[in-house]
Design brief:
Oligomer: single chain
Largest sheet: 6 strands, antiparallel, barrel
Structural class: alpha+beta
Strand content: 5-15%
């Protein structure tokens, strides 16, 4: 249901945009068919500007202009036109202007009418007018007898209640597309861009919403398989770990064989063999006991404290006596 509502909202925005675009196209074609060509020369600009209605897409400026050859006009447009510039326009008469205003969805902000005495004369204020007024208010009134020229004030914009006719900027040979493009303002282009972006966002959101919210995500894919139909393969059996072989400790653990013995060499050798086959003797270090000598008749002691064994069989161990070190004689006075 949500998917249908979002699609309806997106299509509604798209239909409204197409309707406004079609109305703008047909309004431009109406100006092209019933408009009168003219050339206007832009004059002075009124200082007061008004925001467009109903949407504040731009400011409407008022100018004093001359319609060739010598008709003085009050021209209002949302463009900032330079003074003394010439522009080609297409304007409607009063009977056709009523039809165009009733048909057009967009407000026709470009208008012109004949200038009257009640419109006044535009006053061009200096660029420093605001700062000068702030300084005058901060300084206060001058001394008595000092003449101060009063600041110029901008006249209000000409009245908008006077009857006027709409116009568009267009040449005599411009087609409908050029007429539409030349009369689009920056605010209208920005609004159209945001409108199209909103349509895209809404339609993409509607496309992403599934019809059935309980359906698993990704069920629309061709390679989708329901979880109940998936075959779960068992985990692979881990490889067997390498067993450690037991190596018995050699009988004489004080001597460990390094390296792999040769299969042809004997495991144990008592003495090195000379090249001629004779037994080669190895000299013992001084003070070493001959391993082939018979064991002593009396066992020796490895104790490091008294009593110490004696050389004779008396059984009396020598005593250890300590004596003090003699003091050196005192020096003579």
């Amino acid at each position: 249901m949500k998917k249908i509502l979002w699609f309806a909202l997106g299509l509604g925005l798209l239909a409204a945009f197409i309707a406004i675009a079609s109305n703008t196209w047909h309004t431009a074609a109406y100006f092209q068919a019933h408009g009168r060509d003219g050339v206007v020369v832009i004059g002075a600009k009124y200082n007061t500007s008004l925001w467009s209605k109903p949407l504040p897409l731009g400011k409407i400026h008022s100018y004093v202009a001359v319609l060739a050859p010598d008709h003085e006009l009050i021209l209002e447009t949302d463009r900032d036109l330079p003074q003394n510039g010439e522009h080609f326009v297409k304007f409607l008469l009063r009977d056709t202007a009523v039809t165009a205003r009733d048909y057009s969805v967009r407000p026709l902000v470009n208008t012109l009418r004949l200038k009257s005495a009640a419109d006044g004369t535009p006053v061009r204020l200096a660029d420093t007018n605001l700062f000068d007024r702030i300084v005058d208010k901060a300084m206060g009134p001058p001394a008595a007898g000092v003449y101060v020229r009063p600041r110029e004030t901008a006249e209000a914009a000409p009245t908008r209640t006077a009857p006027s006719v709409p116009f568009v900027f267009a040449g005599a040979k411009d087609d409908t597309w050029e007429l539409v493009w030349n009369n689009l303002g920056f605010g209208e282009c920005l609004l159209a861009a945001f409108w199209l972006l909103a349509i895209k966002v809404v339609l993409l959101h509607a496309w992403a919403i599934p019809f059935d919210p309980n359906r698993p995500v990704g069920a629309e894919r061709k390679d989708f398989v329901h979880p109940s139909l998936k075959k779960i393969e068992p985990d692979a059996t881990p490889a067997a770990s390498t067993k450690l072989s037991y190596v018995p400790k050699p009988a004489d653990h004080d001597y460990i064989q390094v390296g792999k013995p040769s299969p042809t060499a004997p495991l144990e050798t008592t003495a090195a063999q000379a090249p001629d086959g004779a037994t080669k003797s190895i000299a013992l270090p001084p003070g070493a006991r001959d391993p082939l000598a018979p064991p002593p008749s009396r066992p020796y002691s490895t104790a490091t404290t008294a009593p110490f064994p004696t050389d004779d069989n008396t059984g009396v161990s020598p005593s250890l006596r300590l004596s003090r070190k003699p003091k050196p004689p005192a020096p003579s006075p």
